[in-house]
Amino acid sequence: MRSTPTVPFGRFDTSWPAASRPDLLAEPVATALGRWADAGLAESVLVVDTDPEVADTAAFSAAYDVPLDVSANCVVIAAKRGGAVTHAACVALATTRVDVNSAVRKRLGARKASFAPMDTAVAETGMEYGGITPVGLPEGWPLLVDEAVAAAPYVLIGSGKRRSKLILPGELLTRLPNAEVVAGLAC
């Protein structure tokens, strides 16, 4: 019998190496983790099966006893310059807010930046709303990671589905395609 990996925080019935449970992951996430397996990084990523009714951060934190300072949110941004719209993702701890109007807008060289509409974020990422994650983002998207997330020993992020979450070292997010650690991304 295989033992359940130990999670560094929270109260979960069981956890698994994420790559071993593609049924708990959105397809782009499973594909990205497959590439991590080739690089020897996938064993650092766990997945936990959870109740999709409490997928939103505050409810999830209360239901599973996960501190907000280890929960990271991934938000999709629509940055506009002229007639062009560029999508990007930003990751920040749940205890902070992404500085869209200043830090993100300036970093992306946009005239205007805002949160992308939900239907756009879901369609572009291939992930469920409430489960969007930086793992498996569309090719070419900038990924801005707040320095506090990158420095965290472990963070909890979406899995691409509302029903599960990933737990991984924050530093692994900096190894994702187009990832950049940004000081002052969130406040």
Folded structure, characterized:
- There is one protein chain.
- It is built from six helices and nine strands.
- The protein is globular, with a radius of gyration of 16 Å.
- The model has no long low-confidence stretch (mean pLDDT 93).
- It is an alpha+beta fold.
- The strands form two sheets. Strands 5-3-4-6-9 form a five-stranded mixed β-sheet.
- The protein has a single domain (16-182), classed as YbaK protein (Alpha-Beta Complex).
Write a concise keyword list for the protein shown above.
single chain; 5-stranded mixed beta sheet; 4-stranded antiparallel beta sheet; 25% helix; YbaK/aa-tRNA-synt-asso_dom_sf; YbaK/aa-tRNA-synth-assoc-dom; YbaK/EbsC family protein
> Beta-strand level of the residues, as a percent range?
25-35%
Give the averaged pLDDT, no decimals: 93
* Order of strands across the main sheet: 5-3-4-6-9
CATH class: Alpha Beta
Estimated radius of gyration: 16 Å
The CATH superfamily is known as YbaK/aminoacyl-tRNA synthetase-associated domain
| Largest sheet data | 5 strands, mixed
According to CATH, what is the topology? YbaK protein
**Number of DSSP helices?**
6
Q: What is the correct CATH architecture? A: Alpha-Beta Complex
Task: Sum up the overall morphology in one term.
Answer: globular
Helix content: 25-40%
Low-confidence stretches: none
Helix-strand string: EHEHEEHEHEHEEHE
- Distance from N terminus to C terminus (CA atoms, Å) equals 45 Å
